[in-house]
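#dry-run=false #mode=assembly
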Amino acid sequence: MNEQFRVAHKLGLMFLHDTPLPEDVKAWATSQLHAKSPALGIKKIKLYPKAKVQKWPKSLQPDLKKRDDMFAMYKQNVRKQRMKLEGHTSEAAKRANNRDNLMGEKDEMKFAHRNVYGKDQVRLRFTSFWANHFTTGNIWDNQNHIGHAIDEAILANLNGSFSHMLYKMTTHPSMLVYLDNVWSSGPNSKNVIWAKENGEQAGLNDNLGRELLELHTVSPSAKYSETDIRNAAKVLAGWGIWPGNLSDGLMTLNERNNKLIEMGETTNSWDFFKKWHAEPGNKTVLGKVITPGKGGLRNLTDFLASHENTIMFISFKLAEHFVSDKPSKSDIDYIANAWRHSNGNLDQIHSAVIERAISSKAPKFQWPMTWLFQVVRLSDASFFKGWDQIEKYDQGLMEVRKIFEELGQSFWHTRQPNGYSSAKSEWLSGEMFERRIRFSDAIYTAGYPSFSPQDIMDRIGVNKATRELVNSLVGRKKQFIALMCSPELMGLENA
Amino acid sequence: MPKLNLTRREFLKASGASLFLAGLPLPGFTKDKPPGTISVIMLEGGMDGLTAVPPFGDPNLLKMRKNLTSNNFLKLNSFFGLHPSFQYFGGLMAQNNASVVHATNFPYVLRSHFEGQNLMQGGGLSPFSDTTGWLGRALDLAKVPGRSLSLDMPLVLRGMSDNDNFYPASIKSSSDLMTQLIDTISMAHSKEGSVIFAKVSKKSTQKNSIVPRNPASLAKFAGKAMSQDGGPLSSVIKVDQFDTHANQGADENGNHGTQLTLIDDIIAGYKEGLGDAWDRSIILTLTEFGRTVLENGTGGTEHGYGSAGLLAGGAITKSRVISQWPGLAKNEQFEKRDLMSTIDYRSVCAACIEKSLGLDHDLIASKVFYTPKLPRVYDQIFS
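#status=ok
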């Protein structure tokens, strides 16, 4: 590939057909860190002419409070359904409840659209990296949160510090629900004392405390103890609120708001700290003393964010994701140094990643979702339905949710908290490769690409081996599949 | 007793259960054919052995786990019971075709999912020290040539060059795989990509009937493949979601109980698929750790140490609960929080390899698990 596309392959999602190619690709990639693009998408697929790309409608992007209210309403309707209340039991009422109150499918489509039509491709790639680092997989109760976390905790904080992003992700309801922290109370909290006296269940849950250390920051290389984990969990105790909370009784939203304020002094689930559930007293994590109260968590995440083990662990992950499948020690050190010198400023860290990714000539194997977005962008296919077409049956086109399910990768599906690996070895399988073939076929067959394999090859300047591969085949469809599954487009070595 | 309760089956999610088949002998391979087949059900997240096989004879169980212990357990003997999700497995025990090993684990005590999962599959001396898995190494030692049919390969099977995994695709608007096209693509790739596309190509020539995508039917499919002459000698099914930190529940409908039901369904599927080959088969579960003895503050359990292993198959001819019970009192627990492990689960895996692949224990101990002094528990399981 020519240099522009080689860089866009490693660090971005490929240039759209109407985007002029930059002359100074490194300056372009770095400037992309500040590219501002709203969530773009299409209302409905149209082929001749292609559907107009426009901003996602505001009505489909509710704020967090609205999302929480919607989920409470959803739970309440389900309850009414079970109580067999009139007007709640029909199939139509159930469908309306899903459609009006659940966000998972809309958010997943918005994410796909954004990646296919976005003008901020490098930012989006870093967003996906961090969304994966801070995995909050889908459990049913979390579906109104995941998209919000990606947009508002990750993408919106991409130009700040790692410590800020860490705090915003740790306190985001998406994380607090996913790793069970919403249920946790300090062993000496008022809640636990009350529960003991009344024969109720309450106590500590260490799930988030453990993963905060193991996955999000210092990693096991820091050799923390079980006590460190429990103490981190004690710092976290009291944070968060289960989104279905206070919806089971048939209370109104107003009553719910009042109850939330009573518990957490706010209706904002992103800043929700229940004093009643918090653990009194100092806690020590990896030698750092954390004072009690709401501010303790920020002290802890700031401490962990600048820990040397965190810097080395995440610098490696960044290098493995963007630079090469086998990053060198100097690649990792270079990123780690940028981290140290800038006190964890993400612009500086990401610029260092960009620099090494460009200077390294090694190919980088791409995740299935990244590859899929790249194929759709290169060919200008219409593969993802529009927001007016959610749940409308189409003979040729799959639901967005289903596409990611078949692809084997999505931020909205059940996952383990360590997220998807960037290691090539985890993705080298017949199953995954079969899906690349099949999706290339489906994108060609159902997506009506605007560009032929020859057009695409000319534009991106494929290497000789790719051109020979494609030209050895007869028929556009076969050529298209071979191009998209070529070593060059997959980020693998040529034979 | 057929047991395919459709309503209880869960469809596979993107990263949910998957099936892997391995150890496919080359056509014409007859020399020293291994005596049996070995299948592994990998349970990701940490199965709670105390919920799965409650030691109701231990006076501390109900004291510590009132909300996690089902009242409807099936009685195995005067000390151990079986969770009500295990209706089918319980039936196999009654027929002397299944056993339980309790208070057991790989010697890994640090309670990280990802290290633990790596170790239970790698079977090496420390996490991430191996790029191959214990089952892969065992199949290699058994000199099963050719091998494999399937589609992301789990670590446990790595160590054999020609392996693959199986999860049928359902992608609208994609047509049948074109063998010649895939061969052409395969040739354009260097070795690592080329061998994978070659597997896709091979698959494109096979007239596979539609494979359902729920775990029980995948197990049935695997059993059937393994029952055939020249079929694979080994399979692995992976199921996740055992990590119940909150609202674990006690009965079949609880969060943990639902997952246990999946195991039961998988074993039932295997038996149905294997047919007569059941008699020479062994199926074992594998999990990265057990869960804390005490219920946590949120109706769940945290990552622990000792758990239970379930064994099923016709290779077992006498059912028993194999355990050196360590006790549940605080001072009997590991680090005052977890069930102690008194049987190294590697020994259990070694016994299953010995039985199914006909390898010598000392060889397995040193070459597969790198632990020459690994205790042999074969007689406790298979005699």
